[in-house]
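Researcher: Next entry in the queue.
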Amino acid sequence: MKKWLFAGLLAACSLAAMGREIKAGVQCTYPPFNYRDASGELKGFEIDIAREIGRRMNANVQFVCLGFDGLIPALLSRKIDVVTSSLSITEARKKSIDFSVPYRASTARFVGRKNGGLLPMKPDNTPNAGALKGKVVGVQRATTNDSYLAGEFSGVEITRYDSAENMLLDLVAGRIDLMLVSPMKVRTDFLEKPEGRNYEFVSPEIEAPKYLGEGVAVGLPKGAAALRDEINAALKGMFADGTFKAINQKYWSFSVLPAVWH
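Model: Structure for this entry, 262 residues:
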């Protein structure tokens, strides 16, 4: 009996040492931000960031894999506690959820075949919808890039995808002419690899806060002020002590922080 009691006490102590549990929604299919490797282990920039936030909060982060368009509904229904999956801060989203301070810039670029002659942006980096007449542009569904295309490229045929990987396959197969993507992701996932050798950015980097947001941040339920403050304190500590920079440099040679933190 004493042995059982002692084992129970040890288990209780272990749980207490771990702190509380936080369920974080992620796509799990979006390298290099959040994805499963060949062994099934979750890895990526945002996985590392979330785990470090949890460590500083004395919390055990449990990742919940969801489609991107299911992340906010899961947060609203309290199936998850936070979203740590490339979620940009936008005015529309701020009506239903709250955000931490931003930890990544939110921009977009068009990618197409080299020497394809397509110029989706004018010299002043404003939309050139007329240049894409009769062309098909791919974008990931329910993202800020999707909102930008729909809002600024009226009349252009858009094909929407549930994953960036399927969109890349269709670009290479010629089923779409261009795609609008995160420049950070496509550079490491595609353009710097052999399969991307015939493709390039065909626009400058696009900054459009109305659509693309004020940066990427942790999404939280409305009214979770205490949790938001803890996460903000963890992030700001990481910015200040070099931990964020070290994680950043595992994935890119350039800083992904929004300009406000430079």
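Model: The chain has a mean pLDDT of 92.
Researcher: Noted, moving on.
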